[in-house]
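re: ur question from earlier - yeah i can do the single chain one, its not a big deal. heres the input i used so u can compare w yours
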Amino acid sequence: MSFIAFVLIVTSATLHAAWNLIAKKNTMTVFFYAQISTVATLSWFHMQLWTPIRLSELPPAFWGSLIGSLLSDLLYCWGLVHTYRRMEMASAYPIMRALPILLTAVVTGWLGWGTTLGFAAKLGFFIVCIGALLMPLGKLSDFKLSRYLSWNMWNVFLVACGTTGYTIFDSRAQFYMHAVAEHVSKPILSMSYYSTRSICLTSVLWLIIASVPENRALAKKCWREQNLTPLLAGVFASGTYVLVLLAMNYVTNVSYVQVFRQLGLPIGMAAGVLILKERCATIKCVGVTLILLGLALSLWR
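and the output i got, formated as tokens:
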């Protein structure tokens, strides 16, 4: 994994933690997610006006990957809405970030996409996953299997599957774009793809809202309240994923992007301790140590 990818992912991980905190504080709903997506679309729509990539020239495989990404994102949204209704962010967020590490590695290995991960990398991924699972615990004795087999964990699993899906599909979509437009620089390619993806996702989300009476009523209520929070969340969310898409161009296997996004966990904990004066439990320090150890090990060749 290159240094450029590392810097991009660290920055992205920080922004990701920020917008998830905003989402949790403002009651995550489909309408809230649509607002975030709309802000992202408007922020990057300018790419459609000057991008050198012609959508009409892209192969069917690209559009298939894009559809797969959109379906995965809808699954992610559904799981996120129901997770934040029933669980605290401190408990749900680390687990939502941990599971995609192993799922992405398994799926890419099974499909043969990207370079084959070595034993050290696989072991590092597993250690990072364990570290992330320890993060929400108050003490080591709280680590019980029953804690991770509750009905709430089903929603977390949906989020993890959605994250895995859109990560892999977006990586493939950019691969097909690059095959058609090799002369286009990687940043332009990633921003062009994100703009196209955002337009499609936002359109689907507003269609869902328009077709469900409950969502329409919620939308009217939110408009009356004139809550500007989604504006900030949208800026953070769009910046987060543009950086992730760009980082995909600098790794040999998209699984590396997934695992290094977990740097947001120790960054978030450090911010909580230093800024919010939160208590730093021993088990959290153990979790952070395992995450950093696993990340270092995953780079071993």
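The CA atoms of residues 274 and 280 lie 10 Å apart. not sure if urs matches, ping me
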